[in-house]
Amino acid sequence: MAPDPWLSLYDTACQIAQETAERIQERNRYQRKGESSAKLNVVIRSSLQTLREKIEQLKELLLRAVSTRQITQLEGDRRQSLVDDLLTRQKQLQASYQNEGTEPDVTRSSLMAGGAKRGVSNPWLLEEPEESRGLGVADLRQQQRRIIEEQDAGLDALSSIISRQKQMGQEIGNELDEQN
């Protein structure tokens, strides 16, 4: 079975994003030491442009695959989420490149979140919980509604227990007053 071209392109885009983050980090080290980083700036700018182009290609391929039903709607939703995450990453890199980000070392936040591990194709994402893995948007909304209903039922039960305890406390207080 031939590898899916969308997945190959996605892996390439992730690799470009990771390399760009490393170059930005290297450029920042040079700037802190007072060294020139002009060459790195050119390479970073080029990498960011390539990343933008790859993301656009991913969007086009995804739209085509969903519209021709080459992939299921569930897989389309999953891939759209990956593209959205990659787009967010690209914006973070752009902000970091322009030193507009809140944190000059963008990779630090992913490291601290526990999302960066060697060999992982998308190191800035946290692991998706097992109960939501493979679910579409509609399924996730249904699951969220069910969880909220369970929480509401639990709160109703807790409310009735607290009301009963309040009533018992008042009766105990009345009994003590009578005994005294």
UniProtKB/TrEMBL annotation:
Keywords linked to the UniProt accession: Coiled coil
Gene coding for it: Stx8
Coiled coil: 41-68
Protein name: STX8 protein
Superkingdom in the source lineage: Eukaryota
Species assigned in the record: Eubucco bourcierii
Start and end residues of each T-SNARE coiled-coil homology domain: 145-180
